[in-house]
Specification:
about 325 residues; alpha+beta; five-stranded antiparallel sheet; 6 helices; flat
Length: about 325
């Protein structure tokens, strides 16, 4: 017995992203079986971990290939977390992208820390200093909103990249940055400013001209965190409390009736995997969209999502145009 699980996200600009996944219906028996399997896998992993640690401790220091044997076992110990780290980073990147899509920002900011004022290698102290400063600014200017992603320097220590809105440059006490010759600094044609309200180290600020490029630029830092164990189990991004987030609705329906939930909208097939029976549909809020082949997206969508139980199910809308709402 199949069912369609639907997750719809509505953004501030009226655009909609809908994810449809066709799966067998989840029953209490399947949940119990999954919990037993998870518990068993956890026990097996713990047995394997103890076994590897025992092998690691048994390697004699006098062994000629001591370092090589130790490296192989340590690598096996670390690899068991790789998939969890990747999944965590993917979830964080998707959430951050949804938040970016729901807000417009004015400035791109980078904040670094002066080692004479704070221990840059102490992650807890650095994060505390950043959140304390951000909360202080927001108390003075409640309309300010931001997202921030941490990144490690090559030599260790964190710095932060931010997208900021709802505040002016004068409120941030910005001054044009100058080089050692007293000339104004420009990067990629944009003038760089210094935030004098930031007292913990060094800062740069530039005005955002391309919203999408800036949002993707910040989101890429989550991708860089993918296999960095230092981020596992820790926050991968920070946001102000007044940040806009998409409205999320979830429901399930029969695969045959899944398109009945969108009777008056035209959706573009953004992603489709027939093997996994998974699709991502997008709608820009305007209702005038064509697919890559120039055909009506609604009709293409109906035909694509109609593959259920190895049989083709195609439902043409009776009162909805394929090209306009």
């Amino acid at each position: 017995m199949q069912t369609a699980y639907v997750t719809s996200k509505t953004f501030a600009d009226g655009s909609i992203e809908t994810r449809i996944k066709i799966n067998p219906i989840i029953t209490e028996t399947k949940i119990a079986r999954a919990l037993r399997s998870r518990r068993l896998n956890k026990e097996l992993k713990e047995i394997e971990r103890k076994k590897l640690i025992k092998q690691l401790n048994a390697i004699p220091f006098t062994s000629p290939d001591y370092q090589k044997q130790r490296y192989k076992i340590e690598r096996r110990l670390n690899l068991r977390n790789v998939e969890n780290v990747r999944r965590s980073a993917n979830r964080a990147r998707q959430n951050l992208y949804d938040i970016c899509k729901s807000n417009d920002f004015s400035y791109f900011v980078t904040l670094t820390f002066d080692k004479t004022k704070i221990n840059r290698l102490n992650d807890h102290a650095v994060k505390r200093a950043f959140t304390t400063w951000a909360n202080y600014i927001r108390k003075q200017f409640p309309n300010m909103y931001y997202i921030a992603t941490p990144e490690y320097h090559k030599k260790g220590g964190l710095h932060f990249h931010l997208l900021v809105g709802g505040i002016t440059m004068s409120e941030l006490k910005c001054e044009p940055s100058k080089d050692i010759n007293g000339l104004y600094i420009f990067k990629n044609g944009k003038q760089i400013y210094n935030i004098t309200a930031w007292k913990k180290g060094f800062s740069t600020l530039s005005k955002i001209e391309n919203q999408e490029a800036s949002k993707h630029y910040v989101c890429k830092y989550i991708t860089k965190q993918n296999l960095d164990d230092r981020f596992f189990g820790k926050r991968r991004y920070y946001t102000s409390r007044n940040i806009n987030r998409p409205t999320i609705e979830k429901w399930q329906t029969s695969p045959e009736d899944v398109l009945d939930d969108f009777p008056e909208q035209i959706f573009l097939i953004n992603y489709f995997d027939p093997r996994k029976r998974y699709a991502v549909l997008t709608h820009d809020g305007n209702g005038v969209i064509e697919d890559r082949n120039g055909q009506g997206v609604w009709s293409a969508c109906a035909q694509t999502l109609a593959v259920v139980n190895n049989s083709t199910y195609c439902k043409e809308p009776s009162s909805v145009s394929a090209y306009s709402t």
